[in-house]
Design brief:
mainly alpha, 9 helices
């Protein structure tokens, strides 16, 4: 009877939880910041730096060399150079004579152009007259304009000036008024450099003259 009166147990699921939801506000607190490292030890930074190692002492200053002997060498060299400078009365070089001849050519051309404007034969006569008598002109002291600029002088073999010596001046310059013969004279004068005796071209041999340095050499 007891078993029959015992009620059967139900196998149905329990009823759902009908409790009200949690309506509390969310946590808005700021996130936690990471921990900062501790500041450096200021005491250790204030400690003095370790001392620098000892450096070797500087070498003693070197005494300047004695320059008394060195100064005498340039003085000797200067004296030697002064001995090599051409002296008045010595033969003029080919280069100096060539420059003087070129200057005289420009002077003669200028005289011709000025006088040829008035009368051409007068210009031709003046050109020839200057070339033939240029070494005997008294107002130039026996020097042509080119030789005066280059500080040269045409003299006799005895060293006498050609001032007013018209014959010697015309004989020595006669070859230069022949067309193209001046080139022959220049070649002969160039080829005779370094030979013994006076440096002469054909005109100098005919007139027995030579060209020497009148004073200090020109700077040209």
């Amino acid at each position: 009877m007891e078993n029959e009166l015992e009620k059967p147990r139900s196998s149905a699921p329990p009823p759902p939880d009908l409790s009200p939801p949690d309506l509390s506000p969310p946590d808005l607190s700021p996130p936690s910041t990471p921990a900062m490292p501790p500041p450096p030890d200021l005491v250790s930074l204030s400690k003095p730096a370790p001392p620098m190692p000892d450096l070797p002492p500087a070498p003693p200053p070197v005494a300047p060399p004695v320059v008394g002997a060195a100064k005498s060498a340039p003085l000797k060299m200067d004296s030697q150079e002064g001995d090599d400078d051409p002296k008045p009365g010595t033969d003029a070089t080919f280069e100096a004579r060539a420059v003087a001849a070129i200057i005289d050519s420009f002077v003669a051309a200028g005289i011709y152009l000025v006088l040829a404007l008035m009368w051409r034969p007068l210009g031709t006569l003046a050109l020839l007259g200057y070339f033939l008598t240029r070494d005997a002109l008294p107002f130039l002291e026996g020097q042509s304009i080119g030789k005066k600029i280059m500080k040269l002088r045409a003299v006799t073999l005895e060293g006498k000036s050609l001032t007013a010596n018209w014959q010697a001046s015309m004989v020595r310059n006669l070859s230069l008024v022949i067309p193209f013969f001046a080139l022959v004279e220049a070649y002969i004068l160039y080829s005779r450099q370094g030979r013994e005796g006076a440096l002469q071209r054909l005109g100098d041999e005919w007139a027995k003259t030579r060209v020497v340095i009148a004073s200090e050499p020109s700077a040209i």
